[in-house]
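Q: what sequence does this backbone want?
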C-alpha cells in the first residue's frame, strides 16, 4: 500500500482490519510517532516511514499513549525504514525484545540525529548480533576546548553501526 506524500499524521483506528497487508509506504508524511497499529498486523513485513516528523523512536496508540514493548510481545515486521527523520534515541524495550531480535532483518535509522546509545543498548546490539541488522549514523558534536598551552578540536566522528565502518578525525594544536 502506497500512502507516500499524503500529509498523513495518523492512521485510522480501523486500519488493523487490513490483515493481509504485507508492505506499507508511509514516507514523506507528517507522522510524529510510529503507529502501534502497524505492529498488530501479522502479515506486515515492510514499513517505510522515511522523511516524516518522527522526533523519538516511540510507538504510540491512537490516543498518543506510548506503548512499551514487552518481552512477550510478538514482532512481525522484518524491514523498518525510518531514515531522515529527527529520531534521537533507541528504545531499550524494543532492542531487548527477543521477538524483535529474532524477526528484524533490517532497521534503518540512518540520517537521524541519534545520540550515542547508552552502553546497555549498544552492548545488546553487539551481544545479540544485531550490528548487521540495525544501522544508524552517530555524530559526535563539535567540541572545542581552549587552554593556555593547547587547543583541542574534535571534528565530527561518524560511526556507522552495522556497517563496521568507523571514521574519526581529531587534531591537536599546540600554541
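A:
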Amino acid at each position: 500500500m502506497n500512502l507516500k506524500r499524503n500529509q498523513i499524521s495518523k492512521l485510522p483506528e480501523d486500519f488493523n482490519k487490513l490483515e493481509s497487508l504485507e508492505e506499507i509506504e508511509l514516507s514523506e508524511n507528517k507522522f510524529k510517532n510510529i503507529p502501534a497499529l502497524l505492529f498488530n498486523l501479522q502479515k506486515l513485513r515492510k514499513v517505510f516511514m522515511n522523511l516524516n516528523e518522527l522526533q523519538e523512536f516511540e510507538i504510540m496508540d491512537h490516543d498518543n499513549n506510548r506503548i512499551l514493548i514487552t518481552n512477550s510481545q510478538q514482532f512481525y515486521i522484518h524491514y523498518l525504514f525510518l531514515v531522515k527523520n529527527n529520531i534521537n534515541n533507541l528504545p531499550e524495550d524494543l532492542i531487548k525484545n527477543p521477538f524483535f531480535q529474532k524477526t528484524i532483518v533490517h532497521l534503518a535509522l540512518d540520517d537521524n540525529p541519534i545520540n550515542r546509545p547508552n552502553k546497555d543498548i549498544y552492548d545488546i546490539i553487539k551481544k545479540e548480533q544485531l550490528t548487521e541488522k540495525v544501522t544508524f549514523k552517530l555524530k559526535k558534536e563539535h567540541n572545542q576546548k581552549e587552554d593556555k598551552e593547547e587547543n583541542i578540536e574534535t571534528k565530527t566522528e561518524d560511526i556507522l553501526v552495522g556497517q563496521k565502518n568507523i571514521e574519526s578525525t581529531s587534531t591537536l594544536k599546540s600554541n
